[in-house]
Design brief:
Blueprint (H helix, E strand, L loop, with lengths): L5 E5 L1 H4 L7 H9 L8 H5 L4 H14 L4 H7 L4 H13 L24 H14 L5 E5 L5 H14 L3 H10 L2 E3 L28 H9 L7 H15 L4 E5 L5 H7 L1 H4 L5 E5 L5 H8 L6 E3 L3 H6 L36
Helix pairs in contact: 2-4, 6-10
Amino acid sequence: MIEKNTVLILGAGASMPYGFPSGKQLISEIYHLKANIADPLIRACNNEDNTAKSFFRELVMADPPSIDTYLSQHPKYLKIGKGSIAQVISSHEKEDSLYHIIKYPKNYTKDTRWYHLLFELIHENILDGGLIPLSIITFNYDRSLEKFIYNKLKYMYDKTNEEIKLFFKYFKIIHVYGKIGTLPELKDNNDEYIRYYDNAIITEENLIKASNQISLIYDKNPINIIKKEIEKVIVNANNIYFMGFGYHQDNCDILMIDKYAPKDAVIKGTTYELTELEVHRIQKFASRIEFFEVDCKDFMRNSAMFDDEGEEIDPYNRFPEIPITDPLNGIRNKYRP
């Protein structure tokens, strides 16, 4: 049960267990769309063929840390960039991937799906019928978490659509950069684009609608509105947990944790597959975060992460908060197999 105001901040690593790409993988998959240069993507984005080719070519040569960062520096590619994001993300929405009781794909060495663990935490809150003191800020475009929670409420608790829509009214999930449409089960009169959770080929018309739901750092007005929502959530937080987050400075600047988080807030984050040197660099602009070298599932499984009562349990290796003078020490953390 979650009793204190808690905020989860999700990055690409939080959605990867459900078949979605990392930030770098997203760029790679966008690049490989060039093989279908005459597909609806080009027509939907109203780009000339040469413009599309230059986008794919320059994107791969730029080798940016994320597609969001690249498009913020190259607004001329905003339409085709957003369309590419929508096309790639929609191709990965597969409902069977959401459920941990369904066998994990063979090409994955470890099942790191964690949504069911989150739901176990809020299970008692739901039974009590009260508000859940949990907000989620996600930098991902997919709707996998919403779909998982919707199905749980519907098929586990026999909730009606109206009851579930009311639940989501108070259970806040903020998509910082937008999402590729609203689930039809959760639609309201203000939603511009409704999309089922599946990986069906997206039509030219719907591709335009989906890309219009995506906002990037360059889109000042939507981002400024989101920033105000984020501030309201952060200032009231007792616990803030970063999960699957890459800690790119642009994204950290949007959150402004150092400015808005209460001084006594507990702030922790996963650093799975980050080196000591990378974590040390992150600490320069995210000094309040206590880092744990685990994936999202292992982070959730440690109850101490969400329980500040009693003695702290620490089964994980924390990264040292000391300067790393020898770059070779940061190539791989000595604790990682």
